[in-house]
Design brief:
It comes from Desulfurobacterium indicum. One of its GO terms (molecular function) is porin activity. With 413 residues, the protein is α+β, with helices and mostly antiparallel strands. The chain is built from nine helices and six strands; from the N terminus they run αβααββααβααββαα. It has one domain: Outer membrane efflux proteins (OEP) (Up-down Bundle). Helix 3 runs antiparallel to helix 4, helix 4 runs antiparallel to helix 9 and helix 6 crosses helix 8. The two termini are 18 Å apart.
Length: 413
Amino acid sequence: MRKIIALLLLLTANGYSMTITELQETLKNNNLEIKQSFKNLESVKFQKKADIRKFFPILNFQASASRFYPYTTTMGESWENDFTAGITATANIWNFQTKTKVNIDSVQIKSQQLNIDKTFEDIYLQGISFLIQLKGAEKTIALRKKELENAKKIYKVAKSKYDQGLVLITDVLKARANIEKTKSNLIASEGEKEKIETALQNLLNTDKPVTADVKLSNNFTIPSAKELVKEALKKRKELAIQKLKIKTAELNIQSVKDTNKPSITASASYFRESSDLSFKNENYNLQLSLNWKIFDSFQTKYEALSAEKEKEIAEIELKRLENQIKKEVLDSYTDFQISKANLENAKSYLEFARKTFERTLNEYELGVSDLVSLLSAYNEYVNAEENYTNNLVNLNIAYYKLLKSAGMLGGTK
């Protein structure tokens, strides 16, 4: 109950301050593709109900009025009226093909349920990636603002040294230009954040502002590649869906063969008729029909062979999917390890660049270094900070992609 109240408060607020868990819940309720998938499931369920009803009786009311000539009597020929009204009930009480079709519908329902889970996992990963990128963009903007403060500090030092006659006006102009460049970088970062936020809003089907309430981690523990592959082959929805396609292909073969099996139809009718509107004459009729195709020039045989080939194609596709998933897991595992190594290098690079910038700034203030060296160290520090943030974002996205490839992401609808 608390989660539901929290979600309602979240939806009615001015915007979303979103964790990954809240992202999961919001996607379940808001995403249009998920809603569409549920409509598809409802459609398949209704189709099954419709096929089951084929065994139920159908009632028809019939009425007719006619006038014909000649009607011959002892008095001669004349015009005659005929009025008829009645009810007919017909039921296909046994049909092997319809029974198999109901079984196919049951398999299709299971397949659609799995497809909803697969669709949700795909969208969930996409949403997580956007949320992590949004957090990275927010960090980048914070860095840009910090860089702007550093640029202003450099300008202030250059201006002070110029006022003291220690440097030329060129240093002041270069420092001022560096401020404008940093402002442009800040504007670009804010624009990139807006693009990411728009993409996330589109995924969430909302116009409300979104902020990322996530922590970018640099410490993840994952199983071995072998264990991840094993999990993927057990949990990936694509494999379960493909196995159901094989089951459907088997039932399609059975459905083709069922055309040569007998079907039984029962009908009953009650009519009243007369030459006037009294409907005084009654007519009852009961009928049981057996329909059995005994020879169709081998048409069913070849249709069954064609359906068997479709099953073989589905079995080959299952094997292809297994190989594809193995490769996907191993590739994701490699990407994660590379991202982890890149982050370690970026961390060392950032520490080195920070110390270099601080030392060069101090040397410039003491007059033992020039502005060119200071700006070079400053730009190196800026690049190192951005590089570290980008690699931190990449590592977090790589982690969730690895979980998704192994069927371990969770968030099943």
